Each structure stands twice: as C-alpha cells, then as structure tokens.
Amino acid sequence: xxxxxxxxxxxxxxxxxxxxxxxxxxxxxxxxxxxxxxxxxxxxxxxxxxxxxxxxxxxxxxxxxxxxxxxxxxxxxxxxxxxxxxxxxxxxxxxxxxxxxxxxxxxxxxxxxxxxxxxxxxxxxxxxxxxxxxxxxxxxxxxxxxxxxxxxxxxxxxxxxxxxxxxxxxxxxxxxxxxxxxxxxxxxxxxxxxxxxxxxxxxxxxxxxxxxxxxxxxxxxxxxxxxxxxxxxxxxxxxxxxxxxxxxxxxxxxxxxxxxxxxxxxxxxxxxxxxxxxxxxxxxxxxxxxxxxxxxxxxxxxxxxxxxxxxxxxxxxxxxxxxxxxxxxxxxxxxxxxxxxxxxxxxxxxxxxxxxxxxxxxxxxxxxxxxxxxxxxxxxxxxxxxxxxxxxxxxxxxxxxxxxxxxxxxxxxxxxxxxxxxxxxxxxxxxxxxxxxxxxxxxxxxxxxxxxxxxxxxxxxxxxxxxxxxxxxxxxxxxxxxxxxxxxxxxxxxxxxxxxxxxxxxxxxxxxxxxxxxxxxxxxxxxxxxxxxxxxxxxxxxxxxxxxxxxxxxxxxxxxxxxxxxxxxxxxxxxxxxxxxxxxxxxxxxxxxxxxxxxxxxxxxxxxxxxxxxxxxxxxxxxxxxxxxxxxxxxxxxxxxxxxxxxxxxxxxxxxxxxxxxxxxxxxxxxxxxxxxxxxxxxxxxxxxxxxxxxxxxxxxxxxxxxxxxxxxxx
Length: 715
Known about the structure:
This protein is an alpha+beta fold. It is built from 17 helices and 28 strands.
C-alpha cells in the first residue's frame, strides 16, 4: 500500500471509530429483556436454569424440580457444582499403570493410557479410572402438590402455564394452576453462594396441599447422570441434623463425599423424612398463602451464620447479574432486515447467560456444564478453547483467568504424561477431572490440539492488559507447554523438516494414530503457538529458545494436493473418500481459530473452504463446527458466507428455546456450541489483527444494522 492510500485508510478508520465512540451506548437491558424466555407448556427440552458459574440449578415448568423423571431425557433437572465429585473406593487394587499400552512412534517408545477390550483385567482397570471419579447430582428440590383426592399431581395436572426467565436479573417466574387454584413461584440463584431461593404463593398452602421435598439420587457412574437414579438406597446415607421452626440442616453421605443442605424458611414449617429413603418433606404452616425457602448446598458443615433470606438472595442475583451484563462487550442488531439477525441476537444473549452460569467456574467445564453429566462429568481440555476464549474477546477476561489458573494445579500430572512418552515439558490432559487426573481413552490418549490452548489463552489475557505481571504469572505454563510442543515433532532427515506425528489423532477424530501425520489445523496451530511462546521470552527480556526456533523454521508445510489443503498429509483422498468427510472439518481451523501463519496461502484456503462446503457430510458434525466455518469465511473476506455457516440447517446446529445447543438424544445440550457462537460474533464485531473499523466481519449488504461496543480483537 502506498503512503497516500495508507493515510486515507487510516483516516477512514479514525472516522469510523469516532462515529462508533460518539454513538449512543447500547441499551443493554432492552437488548437482554427482549429475549426473555417464555414457556407455556411442559416440555423436557424447555427447562430453565439459574446459577453462578460454579453452581447451577435447573427447573421444570413449576419453578422447581417437581417432575425430574418427565424431564430426564430432555434438558434434565440437574443440581451440580464444581466441588460435587464422588470417588469410589477401590476394593480390587487397580493401578493406573495397568491402563498403559506401549507404542513406538518415530523411534520413540512411550506409554499411553488406553481403553482395551482384552484382557478382562485391563478393560476393567480402564473402566475404573474413567468412572470411579465422577460428578454427582447433588439433590432434587421440588414441589409435592396434592390433589383433592390426596394423590400427588402429575404433569398433566399442571395447567395454564406461564413461565419466564428474565436473564437480566436471573429470575424465573412461574405461574400455573392445579385444580383451578393458581400457584405463583419465583426462583433465583445466589451469585456468590451455592444457594437457590424460591418463593411460592398459593392458597394450596393454607389447605396443606403444597409441600417442598428434598430428595437425593444415587450417582449412575455412567456416561450420563440425569439425577433420577433412586435405586441403590443402601449405598448412601442421608439424615436430618439440626432443626428448628425456621430451618434445618440435612446431611448426604456417599462413598467418597459428604455434603450438606442448609435450609432456611420464613414463618413456621416442619421437616420430616418420609417412608421413602433419602426423601424429606418441608410442610409449611397453614397460616399463610406464601412461603419462602433458601437452600444452600455445601461441602462443609454449615456454621451458625444465618443464610440470606429470599429477598436478599433475589437482590444479590439481580444486582450481580446486572453488573455482569453491564461489563464487557455488547451487541445490538435492532433495525436489521436480514431475518436471521433477530435469531442471532437471541443466540448471543442466551449463550452469554448460559456460559455465565454454567462455565465460569474455577476449572474447565464439562461439555454439558452444570446440568447433567457427559463423560462422567469430566472436562475435555480440547473443548476448553470453545468454552472460554469468548470471555476474553467480550472483555470479561476475569472469567477466563479463573479457569486458566487451574493449569498450575494439574501441571505435575501433565509433565508425567510427557515424560513417560519420551517428551519434554507438559502434555496437557485430554479427558480429565477436577484434580487433573488423566482418563484412559483409546482416542484421547493421542489427541493433542488441546496443547496450544494455554498459550492462546494466556496471550489473550496479556493482550487485554499489556501488563508484564501477566507475563510473569503465566510464563511457566506457556514455556512448559512450548517445551512439549517443540519436543513432539519428529525430524525427517530425508525431507529436512519436522513432522507432526505419527502418533496423533487430530481434531477430526476419524484418523488412526498409527498412520496420521501433519494434519493441517494442528500444524498451523503448532506453528502459531510456538511463535507466540518465543514472543513471550522476548517480552520478558529473555533470549529466544534455540530448539524452538529450529522447529519453527523447519516445521512441515501445510499439506496440499490438487490446490487444496488436506485434512492430513497421509490422506491424499481427504475430500474424495466418504470416510474422511465426517466429524469436525478441522482443516478450516487453520484459518479461523488460528490467524494466518507464514505457511498459509489464503487462495489455497479459499479453495479448501469451497470444497469442504460442497462435499462435507454436515449431518455428521458437532455444534462448534459451524462457528469454526464462519470464522474461516470471515477471515477469507466472505462475511455473507460466515452468516450462512452460523445458520446451516443441520440438527447439531439447533438452538433450543432455552438457548442450549442441541446435538442428539444423547447430548441434549452442548455448551461448546454456545461458546462458538459468542467467539464468532466477537470476531465479526471486534475484528481480528489487521482489520480496521467496527464490525468488520458482518455483511455490508445493507441488511445488517449492527451496533457493538467493548469487543477485543481476536489474534
């Protein structure tokens, strides 16, 4: 670009920024509340949640968890926390080393923790270490409402439903009738305590026909735990501790965890254990038509300090959620004529709410958040990018920092994995738990696209503040990550380059570890992250690492055949063999999730994008694949195609009324999809390195009126 064009371009950029700065700020409350969720029926996919990022509570149309069995196969009525993990006692004597299988890749022999079908002992050992530590459903808090004939109501007895979730305040308001008697319920989640507060108003109280129950399920220790396993009563213990007219403490003891419910109510009430084990009823006094209850879930025995009452909890939720919404970035599509704009705004609002209450805790979340278990409740670290990157891009880096700090706690385990496989540094776990323990997996043992994530996220935190304290705090994690990354590639003495693999399974998990090398996305991400790690050394006044530079300089080129990038170098039929046209089209991530590297040609990536768009089996994809494709389209300069990608008509790109990304009957919610929407919209609005002006990624066809503020540029 010549000097004159540069001056004109810069002037236009300044004018655009000034225009955006001088515009009226977005009315954030109006944007959020125009997407208030309304339910008018009992539908298992329409349940709603309150929570604070480390604790969440999901309710049905009654405002509590009255019908958990009815909702079990939908968006289950979960009560989960980041501390709620059970650990079974090992009566067999399994050793983690029993899950190891020896492999030799590129002349380097190492041990990998694997699932196995044979021998039986090895299979059972792997199952044990996958399942024995599992997240639990803490308990079910619901209404027991009796009809005039003395029987409990069923879902068909609940009429005239009108339920709303005001995401601005985190308040669920539920109205319904039972035998023509109105019931009004308000439900909120405390933002600093693992506490749910509820207020109910109905004449059923004065008739003694409405009670509140606390019931404890037993964990399934299976892939899913929907909180309705009422078998195995002998395997756990529950009891009433202290009790008064205004409250009580319940104890629930499992094999590997004991926790407590502290209850506080207004007025008078009594609590009693029913004839069914692990089932307690709170019976309010008949002297009033309203009743308030606060229920705290705690890993420690609660002290004598009083719980906040309902009004205090309601104010806490309202004030702190308003603070959340007023922080960071915002976007408003009002006035757009593209019919998809309103739906995109809805997905943006609900995804912000869901990730705030489900994914803002102290370690990476599981893919189903704090609603129900998937993979035994365990996080998958390769998904952490999709869960957390958006927080920084939306100007809410404090939520990313909370979970990123967890890497300090699990570093020792990551270094052990690297060492036993013959590498340096830390190889970050794939499927893990809150303590960072590795789970055996025939696929996960070889996945490694989670490896650069800590570098990416630490870089976002640094870019947010440009504070050297961030460099000092995270340098060890960045450098240990880079040490593994530099030691993993194998030198090819014939082609004089470093190959990534063999011995890996890429993000597109259809390829075998024994055959796979140089997947395009992982190569691009590897190259970018190692370069950033070197920048960190320079920023800290340290010399560049010579070994890292050797790898950067000689890392294999992105594999190309017939003018397009291949999924992996060893698969020349990447786009002609139907077997390779399913799962994640992660080849697109090489320009989208990752900025353009010196190795990448935009022209080749454009042809690759066009090919993937045309031939991919999109029905066999996951929720974050559509945002990934949208980011690639945006970086290629095709903003209209980016919107098309976000709205591809595929089942796994479905967003339910409550905002959750539906995948299938097994995964009814999938929070990486929500995070992907937020990351993509942040990129389209805030831009990426090298873009100018506001909203550079949105179409300029006159159909999109976009007002945005507070977004950070994506690398």
